[in-house]
Write a structure and sequence with these properties.
- The strands form two sheets. Strands 5-4-3-6-7 form a five-stranded parallel sheet, with helices on both faces.
- The protein starts with 7 loop residues before the first helix and ends in a 13-residue tail after the last helix.
- With 351 residues, it is an alpha/beta fold.
- The longest helix is centred in the C-terminal third of the chain and has 17 residues.
- The protein has 13 helices and seven strands.
- The protein has three domains: 59 residues; 83 residues, no CATH class; 141 residues, Rossmann fold (3-Layer(aba) Sandwich).
- Strand 1 and strand 2 form a beta hairpin.
- One of its GO terms (cellular component) is cytosol.
Length: 351
């Protein structure tokens, strides 16, 4: 069924059918539209849980008058061009920018590269396959194994399942890792004590460590204050709470989130970690997860996945969408994590 805007008459029809107790699926059939259209109409245009067709139509007309096609900001497009030029794939770019709160889909990036190629640009040279068209190959037939032994001829002792290898699972290699918890530090007080925000992160870490007793714990933070570092104080705090020191890796050299990501990635790689949970404040985890993903491409394990656990340190409305300043900071730190210089200049920063 092709998409159509609801008319004022159809809205009055929906209202009448609702009053008669007709189900939404039946209303959709009678109005001749998709069921999702009716659901969306009721969700958008109800007032105090009541549907008023007159108000609904007026709201729809008003939205259409003020509507405009979304345009991707110029600075984001320039950043995408920069990442393509240093051989990032569209999938990597889309993943990082989406996690940073600057959503962009990989299909749009491919279309942008194709448009650039038509205009004489060279961005397509940086794609993995050079933007070549897919060519169908010949179907290969399965080869017959030479000198194959039928399962009917296997030794009868195998049926007892007593020896290593008698079960197929015996020869399957399992996972090397048990996961990791990565806690990001926070600036210490002038006297060398921990800030309440850092204690909050540690309490979250402690709860997760108890819930995941085999998980490795990476504590990263190296800005010294009164001859103490965040990593050292965090480790002492957890050990005092009963966490074994054998589970803990102290990282006492990081002085920024970029360092947190790069230095921790070496530890994750060394222990063959495939999944890590990053613990920080809610206003910080968007930047942290983005940089950790980039660092894992550069210095760490392959195919590692990340998620985050945080507590809100700002109103939820402020945390929902990153502002321009936060996005600019993520763009710059992404370049630094990747090993490039970053500058305070147009178009990455508007004037």
């Amino acid at each position: 069924m092709s998409y159509q805007q609801l008319t004022e008459g159809k809205r009055y029809q929906i209202s009448t059918l609702l009053e008669l107790g007709i189900s939404i699926s039946e209303i959709a059939l009678k109005v001749k539209c998709h069921g999702a259209t009716v659901y969306r109409e009721l969700k958008r245009n109800r007032i105090h849980n009541q549907y008023c067709p007159k108000h609904a139509h007026a709201s729809s007309v008003s939205r259409r008058k003020t509507a405009h096609k979304y345009r991707i900001p110029v600075e984001r497009i320039e950043f995408v061009r920069l990442l393509i030029s240093i051989d990032w794939s569209p999938e990597q770019i889309a993943s990082v920018l989406t996690k940073a709160g600057a959503s962009i889909c990989q299909e749009w990036i491919y279309r942008y590269i194709a448009q650039d190629k038509r205009q004489g640009g060279k961005l397509y040279h940086h794609l993995r396959q050079g933007h070549k068209r897919y060519r169908k190959g010949l179907k290969e037939k399965a080869l017959t194994i030479k000198n194959a032994v039928s399962i009917d001829e296997r030794p009868s002792i195998v049926d007892n399942r007593e020896r290593f290898g008698d079960w197929e699972i015996d020869t399957v290699l399992g996972k090397h890792d048990t996961g990791a918890i990565v806690t990001l530090g926070y600036a210490l007080n002038p006297d060398g004590s921990m800030h309440p925000i850092l204690v909050e992160r540690l309490e979250t870490t402690l709860a997760m460590a108890k819930a995941n007793p085999d998980a490795l714990i990476v504590l990263t933070g190296g800005v010294p204050m009164n001859h103490k570092t965040e990593g050292k104080l965090m480790a002492d705090w957890l050990i005092e709470k009963g966490i074994s020191k054998d589970r803990i890796i102290e990282e006492n050299y990081a002085t920024s989130t970029v360092d947190n990501a790069l230095f921790s990635s070496y530890a994750l790689a060394r222990h063959h970690i495939k999944h890590a949970t990053i613990i920080s404040s809610a206003s910080h985890v968007r930047r942290g997860q983005t940089l950790f993903e980039i660092a894992s491409w550069q210095t760490g394990p392959q195919n590692i996945t990340f998620d985050t656990v945080s507590y809100p340190d700002k109103p939820l409305k402020e945390l929902a969408t990153p502002n321009d300043g936060e996005l600019l900071g993520i763009y710059r730190d992404a370049l630094r994590t990747y090993g490039m210089w970053s500058y305070r200049s147009y178009p990455l920063e508007s004037r």
